[in-house]
Amino acid sequence: MKKFLLASSMLIASAFGAEAQTINILMESVPDTRYVQEMLPEFKEKTGIDVQLEVVNYAEMHTKLVPQLVAPEGSYDVIIVDFYWVGEFTKAGWLQPLDERIQADEFPVDNYIPSIMDLTGKVDGTTLMLPFYNYAMGLTYRKDLLEDPKHQEAFKAKYGRDLKVPTEWPEYLDQVKYFSEDAGIEGFKGVVNQGQRPDPISMEWSNYLFANGGRYYDPETWQPTLATPEGIAALTQYRDSIQKYGPIGAANFSFDDAFNVAAQGKAYSYLTFNMFRPVYDDPASSQVVGKMEIAPVPGGGMNGSWGWAIPKSSPDPDAAWEFIKFIESPEIAKKRALLGGAATQKQIYEDPELIEKFSYYPQLGELLAYAQNFPVFTYTPEFVDVLGRELSLAVADGKDPKEALEQVDKDFAELLRKDGKLQ
Amino acid sequence: MRWLRRAAPHLVLIPFSLAVVLPLLWLLRVSLTDRRTAYQIPPEWSTPHLGNYVEIFTAYPFATWFWNSLSVALLSTAVALPLATMLAFAFARYNSGGAPLRLSILASQMLPPIVMVLPLFAVFLGAGLLNSRTAVVIAHVGMNLPFLAWMMIAFFEGEVRQLEEAARVEGATRFQAFWKVAVPVAAPGLLAAALLAFIMSWNEFLFALILTGKRTATLPVGLSTLDTHRGVEIALLAAANMVAILPVFLMMPFLRRYLIKGLSLGALK
Amino acid sequence: MTAAIAQRDRWFGFAMTLPGLLALLLVVLFPILFTLWTSTSDFTLLKPSNDAFLGLSHYTQAFATPEFRHALSVTLAFVVAVVVLEFLVGFAVALALDKVEHGKAVYYVILLFPLLMNPIVVGLIWKMFLHPTLGIVNYVLSLVGIPPVDWLGVPDNAFWTVVAVDIWHQVSFMIVLLLAGLAALPKEPYEAARLEGAGTIRCFFWITLPLMRPVIVVTLLIRLIFAVKTYDIIYIMTRGGPGQATELVSYYIYRRAFVGLDVSQASAMAVILLLVVLALTAWLHRYMRSLAQ
Amino acid sequence: MTEIRLANVTKTYAGGQTAVDAVDLTIHDGEFFVLLGPSGCGKSTTLRMIAGLEPISSGDLFIGERRMNEVDPKDRDLAFVFQNYALFPHLTVKGNLTFGMKLRGVPGPEQERRLAEVTAMLGLAPYLDRKPGQLSGGQRQRVALGRALLRDPVAFLLDEPLSNLDAKLRAQMRTELVKLHRRVARTIIHVTHDQIEAMTMADRICIMQDGKVAQVGAPMEVYRNPANTFVATFTGSPPMNLVPGRLEHGAVQFAGASLPVDVRASGGDVTVGFRPEDLSLVAAPARLPINAEVVAVETLGADAILVASLIGGQEVGMRVPADTALSPGQPIAVHLDPDRLRLFDPGSGKTLPRR
Q1: Most buried of A288, C49, C142, D150 (most Cβ within 10 A)?
Q2: A2-128+305-364 adopts what CATH topology?
Q3: Which residues of D touch B173 (CB under 8 A)?
Q4: Does D69 touch chain C (CB under 8 A)?
């Protein structure tokens, strides 16, 4: 029925010689957006629908989206949603459920990696988004140094274990210490961190937390659990990473500042978003082409992803769905992945053509499978703000880790109570 | 002693200019290289290439951003300038509305713009002006008007007053005294204020972000997209910035005349 | 009956203000009234409407929030530092520019460059220049034997670095206005003073400063108001960190609204900020005027 | 018939100070009328009220038959010359001169004709294309005058136009203004604090004190018969000598002397006033001498001012020939013509009327 309506409306539109149907999408300035852009001619050919991508910077996206979503009819037919905002957007009721459309068109939702579908797909049983791309975090490290027999020998002598891709967290911490203190490379550090408030530090520290076996909250009761021995150990290690083993200034590094240190070959490792992995191999950005590799963070890294959604204020939800269905179809998803996109569907990580092209694809698949999630609730962004502030105070301003985490727990609990999650 | 007097201003201006120009020169260098080289320490001199300049125009709608910004800044200044001049004159000469009106007009600009954004969005949504340059122009007029008016008050005080009196007894109406005497005499101040208004509009980000769409995005909105989730496109940004500061060069002839005019006026009064 | 001329003056003044006031009505007055209303209500981004009247509870809550109070104090320090330093540097440059005989236009163009740069760009490029290990600044310092400075990673450094970058960006604003004021100064008093044997310094304190007072007052006021609203540079360079060293109140209020989603709370904080700045402005205005008497 | 009349004109500022207090004045058509007084006496305010630059708080202003209180300055048909000349810095000399004519829509050829006439009269022809900033003080002054002249107004209002000139130029301009006045035969109201200007140029002088009119009259009338001690001391250089005395039986006694006077009052304390030139040195045994002692002699060139101390310690000035050879401490005898004596009430300072 919907197809019919769409088709007939297109027919009418063309019959009257009116302007072609257009949908507007607000996106972020990332490579994945560029890959979407490249698919648009094909979509236009198939459906006759023009797609206008409006691109803004991440920081401004939320500011720009909110008034649009609040309005009865906004400018955007399709939006993309960061997992940060999922709680907020669903609580506010800004997104249209997609289940009916998925069923009607038999869209293969089972292709998605479950952890990502949890993050930016289903919310409380309702599918509000389809995952677009992921930005799970992994451990990027200097493969060439790791495989250097000289370092392997020296490391073994000092720490009593093999220098290899770390599978245990303490193993990694030893490597950091070794490359900062013992490797004898001038101006070289074992790690570079992104210590800036609030998202860079919060996302990076999450890896430390998970690696130490800590977690944000008790999944049964939603009781915050940061000021625990695991949390405190994680924060103490993190502070040491920045202050003892990292380059000067890391306490205020954004991921860009930190990435450039790694890309200039001045650090052994950097816990970062997997989408940075290809950039290391771009000679225009990197001095370490072919020397960096990515691996899962021991203990399971931090996950992140974006999803496609149709806002309630969408002027043309049917055309919007046509687009989402097209761009997320396995065929197009693979095409985007071939261009370098960060895929969210399982089969892509098993696709021989892709593994052939990107040697690190198996690791990426593994990383996604084990990735852990951030607390997702209505006030996630504000929680990150609080967390970032306290972590930064502990790292840069001498606040006691335990005190800092107690403060986070307190504020976190308050936000959870406000959201009705915690009694 | 005379040479010292002549050299003294340069002793202040040269260090200041260097503090401005050296970073810009380094930025120019960044714009002619790539991200890898830009961050390389110690710096390595590679052959400059213009790829970034080509890319901002081909891979990004830089020309559109530039044109949008230029038209918004020019138009909003052109609208705000006469309105503000009249406001300032009424304040300075006739004390219209008294200190309360003056202060409340200025006070309107003390709210962080972020809290103005939602109601403003609603206004333009209702008026059907969303995603248009008109909306940004109107918002920028509202933003610049109070400042312009305040800046100009000072330029209508002092000796201009007596010149207007002279005009009045010579047979000028109130408006003629304003238009034929006060405005030309206060011109250096008014032009300086206009210049600043242009710049404020040129750089204004938040209203432009909320009110424009894809085709009407201004430079600040466009440039901010170069700060991406996959890192800052620093070389492109540098190239874009180099082009974005071009209007200063375009203003050169105008500035030169204004400076000379400003001087000769000062000499008399 | 004698009021007739005064009446016409009043009407003329009113007519002159009318177009400007009308323009401000829509774009400025409505949002402000809306903000005032919202600040006493329950507007959040999750429920974007004003439904309940909550009185001044958002105001009391704002004062009870340590982060808000902290942001206010950091902002105060920032504004004072920025305005005072920019004024000192700006006045020196404006005086020099007013006196200079050759190259005036060239200098003028140079000083306009930073102003035309977007705060976001300024933040990003300075962050690049000041990168502790990859930045040109520390590299140049290392050439003369100075160890690398952690410009943004240490709370105190970060505050002053942000102040310095803001000065680099905005000082020209003051110069342009002060220079316009200087250009409009009468020359006779200087001639008279020179005949009386006053030197350059006395001329400055006896003539320039008093005559420039209205322009100085306005320049300081406007710069002050802009400085209070600073947030782009903070967003790009430090996000209020490290710790809470650069937590400016505008950026904090921005986050209350768009991160914390609580528009009503943000509005109340904005109104508090408005009142503080207004009081400061009124006081400064009166104080400077009284000095002129 | 364009008489300018001020009836009970008062200027009160918002702050409550009264700058001009119930001034009544009539300025005749074609008269050179000088408003004289120290700064702050209200003379400039009075002039500005006449011009319409300052609203009148109460009272009436008439130009001819017409009440002008509510008329805008542009419609009063008066020309005003400001102390700082108020030349338009953005216009050339020519632009300044023709500014008013252009506003009034005087036809081009007529403008040119009048411009030529006035520039010739004031010798401004070489400067027509200059900006005021490129002119000397005297030249600017001429342009300001020229601008007023081109207006061909009912009256010229001059607000201390000479005070910014150096002494020589000022003296020269005084003569020129008088010549100019004769030539244009229009009313001039000239405000000054310089009594020499007033004396040399005016047909009539109005001396103002604290916002009030102290005296109006022809220069010599004011000089000879000052209405009060303020006028007496404000006019003349050096000013009128004032010494305390006592009136008894038709004679005034002061400084050991007794002179017959012809006033209505019969007795009591008085202030005795006489001009320096009314005193003369006499040989010791003269009729009614006043004994004094030389304090100092200030040579002026043509003559000298002798400062003498009277009995009782009062110091007075007297005009003596320049070659008078006297040294301080020397006793002298002084003659004073009783007709030249003026008596004032010591309390109010007002002159005591003659019989």
Answers
A1: D150
A2: D-Maltodextrin-Binding Protein; domain 2 (3.40.190)
A3: 72, 74
A4: yes
Using the beta-carbon criterion (under 8 Å), do A279 and B230 form an inter-chain contact? yes
- For B8-57, the pLDDT digits (tens) are 889 889 999 999 999 999 999 989 988 888 888 888 887 888 888 998 89
SS3 A93: coil
> Chain C window 56-85: which residues touch B at a Cβ cutoff of 8 Å?
none
Tokens describing residue D18: 């009264």
**Cβ of residue B132 closer than 8 Å to a chain A Cβ:** no
How crowded is residue A45: how many other Cβ atoms within 10 Å of its Cβ? 8
Lowest mean pLDDT among A1-10, C47-56, D111-120, D153-162: A1-10
Q: Is the pLDDT of residue A16 over 50?
A: no
Give the nearest partner residue to D103 out of B163, B176, B269, using CB atoms: B176
Closest chain D residue by Cα to residue B170: D100
- Which homologous superfamily does the CATH classification assign to the domain defined by C59-292? MetI-like (1.10.3720.10)
Beta-sheet strands, E only, within D112-266: 155-159, 187-192, 204-209, 212-217, 241-248, 251-254, 257-260
Assigned architecture for domain D241-344: Beta Barrel (2.40)
Whether this model's ipTM surpasses 0.85 comes out as no
Query: Are A30 and B230 in contact (CB < 8 Å)?
Result: yes
Among all residues of chain C, which has the CA nearest to that of D53? C5
- Cβ–Cβ of C1/D58 closer than 8 Å? no
How close, in Å, is residue C49 to chain A by CA atoms?
Answer: 10
Q: Provide the 3-class DSSP secondary structure of residue C16.
A: helix
- Render the burial of C63-77: b for 16+ CB within 10 Å, e for the rest: eeeebbeebbebbee
Q: Which CATH architecture has domain B60-268?
A: Orthogonal Bundle (1.10)
Disruptive mutation site among D48, D90, D98, D135 for chain B (greatest number of B CBs within 10 Å) = D90
Amino acid at A53: L
**CATH fold group of domain D4-230:** Rossmann fold (3.40.50)
Using alpha carbons only, give the angle A289, A291, A296 rounded to the nearest 5 degrees. Answer: 115
The tokens of A371 are what?
Answer: 């990735």
Rounded Cα distance between B64 and B222, Å, is 9
Long-range contacts: A329-336, Cβ < 8 Å, 24+?
A: A330/A108, A330/A111, A332/A39, A332/A42, A333/A111, A335/A35, A335/A39, A336/A32, A336/A35, A336/A36, A336/A39
Residue A313: HSE in the Cβ half-sphere, 13 Å Cα cutoff: 20
Q: How many Å apart are CA A271 and CA A252, to the nearest integer? A: 16
> Does residue D10 contact residue D57 with C-beta atoms inside 8 Å?
yes
Alpha-helical regions (H) of C229-262: 232-237, 249-258
A43: which 2 tokens? 């979509």
A189-191 sheet: strands from edge to edge: A189-191, A267-273, A137-142, A292-295
- Name the CATH architecture for the domain at A136-304+371-423: 3-Layer(aba) Sandwich (3.40)
Across the interface, whether the CB atoms of B169 and D53 are under 8 A apart is answered yes
- B36, B117, B118 ranked by CB distance to A287: nearest: B36
